[in-house]
Structure formats: structure tokens, C-alpha cells
């Protein structure tokens, strides 16, 4: 059993820090929400590394919003619902699409500079979008530009206090209400941060897998701490593998953006054959899950560890202008995007599930909110539409602040103690445990799954449960405990869902089964695993 708290503590013995709003995490969700909240409240922003470390920084493609006269909200809604494979909450998609354009305008007001062409926004198209509606910055460095603009603004904001290198161990709750967080400072001491609202903006969980486009910090902390605090966790089986991450000795799994295929790049197997026409009529621009599984199938058929992406039909000038970051990154490894076929393979990229929220970002625990990849708002369903994630963070960030502005301060200070008499003594080096977990997940809960493998993976992961009884004290130990929680939820949900849909694919149940499975998987620490019917508007 996963315990309520990871460590022993007594709040009465710890220093207390008071603020109005606690923001955990520093990607686009954290930065944007902190800036909005600071207009009316005192904000404390806690990040486990620094302002510039987040998944957002690596987002290349851009941000989806209906801006062009040729586009319409109805098209964006339809594209999102089709990608989500029957599991989107239509109300949430409605909110995203209709409030997205205003969110983009707000980003521009906050200093984000999107690319222009002849004085208009340069819009591109990505997989499964029917229209050009992706705004981008510096060609393919959209996330980095947004983080640059927002973090500069955050540093100058007198209403925001920043704590870098601090780790949130757990959320403190009393009678189903979140009152703040237990935080470990860089020197190892602990402090209780008390606030009227706590917002999780802690990002995704790509580190569940051996190969991921996510940075090292994406360890699912927010999902795990929310689960321990009693929040509902939804749809953990749906994990998006990006079809095209650089696969080259010595190189990280760097993202070769979907926009490269949007601009006409084709996929070839190691024999040089273009293969996507055998899998889907939209070819290279089919939904991500389709493309990723097609690549895996080709790799198996050709006994190879990669396929190629071929963008050599474009001039060097266009390639450098449109994808400068990708071009530069490939060059570091002696690969020229303009003249070479680039070796790629799928890598874990985005988790569609997360902490379940309402349309104002509030979780099932009062005063606890979730925004960005950590959340499950209902927008993404079983498979996220490209470039909807950045817009989601902004749209729901604004709504969270609206809801928070109506909250009264907490009247009492909780007095919580946790004494689990945990065993002292070091655990096997965490780095080994983490690698083993990642290999188990890749092997049994990766792109293609089956009952036998998932059951075996689940049992192997369960053997690590005794870690919760030991005295954890370091950041990497907490991260491993959080990864273990997320991996158990993911494998259990995947085992239970006997169908294939979106980012969840079962060899033993290759078809989608709407009669039984058009519903969400829901985890709660108190009530266990249940199912939730789809909310149709």
C-alpha cells in the first residue's frame, strides 16, 4: 500500500511560511498561472531545479489557436475530439478552443514574440489538424521563447517569491482540504508552506520510460503527491509516444518536431522505402499513436532500431530558417537535416492522464488545483492533439486564478503529524532502481502491450513497494517513490482496459470497444480503481 505521506514529520515542530497562493512547478503552466495570480495575491513559486528547467522549454511545434480567418472554432473542436478517440470531455474542449485565442493574446502582452510573415502570424499545420493554426516562435523554439518571456516577467514581479532547488515532498490536507505543502529546502531541512490555494504545475512523467523526450526532472511528482493526498487520478494508461525522436549513439532523444512532417518530410524504413501509406490515408500526418506504432512495426519487420525521416526535398535555406534549433542539434552529431536522412524512433513524450480537475482546474481535494500536463482536464482524451498542451495550460491557468480569487483565506493552521516508524538505512542506489523501473515500463507498458506482459511488469514493480517503509531523505529518493506510484497506476490501468484506443494499444485487444470502454479509468487512494462515464455535452 502506498502511504499517505512519504516521510515522518510533525508540523508543530517545523517552521511555517505563509502565502496566498502556492505554485509548484515552472513550466508554462506554473509561470503563467503565477503571473496571473500575482495580480491579486501573494504567490510563492516552488521549483525543484530552476525557472528554466521544464518540458515547456523543449516544446518546438507551437501553440494551437483559432486565429486565421480561414479557420473556425468548430474545426479545432472536431480535430481535438477525433484525436482524443472518444474520451474527450466536450465541455473542456469547448473551453479550450473558445478561450485559446485570448490566452495567446495575453502571452503576447506578456512579451512572447511569435513568428510573423508579412505582418501576420506565421501559422503552420501539424498532424491531425485540418487547418493551419499553430503559432510558433524562432521557427521551432516556441516553448523556449514562451519560457524566456514569462520567466523574465516572473523575476521582476514583486508579488512572486521564487524558491529554486526546493522539493515538495507532500501536500498537507485536513478534512479533505489542501492547506499547503511540506517542502524540503536545499540544505535538507523541512518547512511547512501554508496557503489558501495550492496549484500543481509540475509537468509530466516521461522518466517512467527508458527513452523519453522529457528532461530528467519529469518524474510524475505532482500526480504522485496528489494521489497520496486523496485526489482522483484519471486515465494513466494513455501515454503518448512521440513518433520521431532522434535515435543516434551518444545523442539524447531529441525531438524532431511533428511540424517537420507538417512541412512535407517523409518517413522511410532502413531500406529507404516510404511506408506510411500502408498504415493510414493521412500518411505521415496521421495521429501520433498511429505513426508511432507504424514505425515500431517497420522496425520489427526490418530488424532495425530506427527508421529515417527524410526532409531533403527542401532547400538548405528553408530548413535552416524554419527549423533552426533542430538543424543545429542534429549538426552536433554530424547529421545535416537538409541533406541527410535522420534516424528516429518513438520516445515517451506526453501523459494524457493525470490529476482529474473540473473546468476551473480544481481537483477532488478542495483548494488543490492542477494545471498543464499534470492535470486531466478532459481536453486530450485518449490522445492529445499536437500543440494543444501549451494552449491548455494558459486557458485553465486563467480559470484557476478566477476561482482562487473567490476563495477566503484558511482560518486555521493544521496540526498534522506523521509517524510511521520508518526503517532507517540506505536503500539500494536509487539510480539502479530507477533504470530498472524504466526498463520494466518500456518492455511491458510501452507502445504495444498485452495482458501477460502488463501483469508481469506490475508484479516486478510491486516488489519495490518496501521503499515506502524506509527513511527517504534525498530528492532522487522522493523522485523514485513518485515514479513507482505513477508506474503502478499506469500498468494497472493498462491491464484493466481491454481494448486499444489512442495512446493505449493492446496486441491481445486490437480493437476499440465503445460498448464497454468509452469511459475513464479513475484511481483514488481511499476507494481504489473505478470507472467514470464520459461526460457528453
TrEMBL record:
Cofactor(s) the protein requires to work: FAD
Q: What is its EC number?
A: 1.4.3.16
Gene3D superfamilies named among the record's database cross-references = FAD/NAD(P)-binding domain (3.50.50.60), Fumarate reductase/succinate dehydrogenase flavoprotein-like, C-terminal domain (1.20.58.100), Succinate dehydrogenase/fumarate reductase flavoprotein, catalytic domain (3.90.700.10)
Indicate whether Flavoprotein appears among the record's keywords.
Answer: yes
- Chief subcellular site? cytoplasm
Q: Which residues form the Fumarate reductase/succinate dehydrogenase flavoprotein-like C-terminal domain?
A: 434-525
The source's domain of life comes to: Bacteria
State the reactions this protein catalyses: L-aspartate + O2 = iminosuccinate + H2O2
User: Under which main EC class is this enzyme filed?
Assistant: oxidoreductase
Sorted UniProt keywords: FAD, Flavoprotein, Oxidoreductase, Pyridine nucleotide biosynthesis
Residue ranges of the TM segments: none
- A GO term from the CC aspect: cytoplasm
Kindly list the GO molecular function terms attached to this UniProt entry.
L-aspartate oxidase activity; steroid dehydrogenase activity, acting on the CH-CH group of donors
Output the GO biological process annotations, alphabetical, semicolon-separated.
Answer: 'de novo' NAD+ biosynthetic process from L-aspartate
Q: Does the keyword NAD apply?
A: no
InterPro entries noted in UniProt: FAD-dep_OxRdtase_2_FAD-bd, FAD/NAD-bd_sf, Fum_R/Succ_DH_flav-like_C_sf, Fum_Rdtase/Succ_DH_flav-like_C, NadB, Succ_DH/fumarate_Rdtase_cat_sf
Localization, UniProt: Cytoplasm
Q: According to its UniProt record, in which pathway does this protein act?
A: Cofactor biosynthesis; NAD(+) biosynthesis; iminoaspartate from L-aspartate (oxidase route): step 1/1
Annotated PANTHER family: L-ASPARTATE OXIDASE (PTHR42716), L-ASPARTATE OXIDASE, CHLOROPLASTIC (PTHR42716:SF2)
Q: Give the record's family classification.
A: Belongs to the FAD-dependent oxidoreductase 2 family. NadB subfamily.
Q: Could you tell me what this protein does?
A: Catalyzes the oxidation of L-aspartate to iminoaspartate.
Query: What is the protein's given name?
Result: L-aspartate oxidase
Record gene name = nadB
